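Quick start: what a row looks like.
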Amino acid sequence: MSLGGQELTKPRLGIALGSGGARGWVHVGVLQALKQQGIEPDVVCGCSMGALVGGAYVSGELDSLEAWALTITRMDMLRYLDVNIFNGGVIDGKSIMSMLQNFKEDALIESLEKPFIAVASDLLTGREIWLQEGSLSEAVRASISIPGIFSPQKTGGKWLLDGGLTNPVPVSACRALGAEIIIAVNPTADALGFRYRSHESPEEISPNEPRSALLDRLFDTVPDSIKSGVKAMTPDFLSSDIDRIGYFDVLSSSIDIMTDQIMRSRLAGEPPHIMLQPKLGQFSTLDFHRAEEAITEGRNIVQDALPALQKLIK
């Protein structure tokens, strides 16, 4: 299309996918709903779970990621606890890394069809790090290194932590890649109303194996001298006791408070054109087994914002 001899082109669209632990499954629904409406970002930047989902999206593996996410149970989350506190986190992350590599083995960020940045934080300097070349799976693994939960990832000679420590909703990264219109998704918009898990029915973990035996097997690699302490810190995904608040509940809420303050400060100076804010307050950082709820909410918030989106993206 041209006007007065000048060619008209659509503005370059970017999407900033924020951090939020399990709430980040919302990004899957958002991206799917946008695509159904013919809206596809030209630039994708993600932080933490936003990097995981964004990485799957730019590598053409979003549907595979969704299919995997929908199969996760609380029992699976216990299996992913490859505990190694000497590596700087309660979860070493080897099983997560293996899963990431299955989506797009040996993919290089610079070879992807869309520009992509995974945001991480330098453990030693506190600086924000933009990972936009090299191994996609390593970049995502670095970006999801939630302090106190996942061990740091050594990439490019630096020990890297979760990008939520420095830029929870990476609007600035989208602008740096040339995005003229930016949609941002903040999974933690409603998070501070959450304190600890409300009552829910326990999920069957195994018909034959008692929970104590399961945990003993999971902690076989932990030295005997500290095994009891590590067990005490482990989240009880199967508990329905609402009179107790655990290590991961405290850590999850603390991270929510911190990232909310950082996000408000960052976005005050670099606001997106549209902010999508799901209502996922009853999710904790590690409720990965509730992917279906978050994905559905992602589709819903796109539908609610559709008039504004269509008006903005002409």
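That is the whole record. The longest strand covers residues 116-122. The first helix runs from residue 26 to 36.
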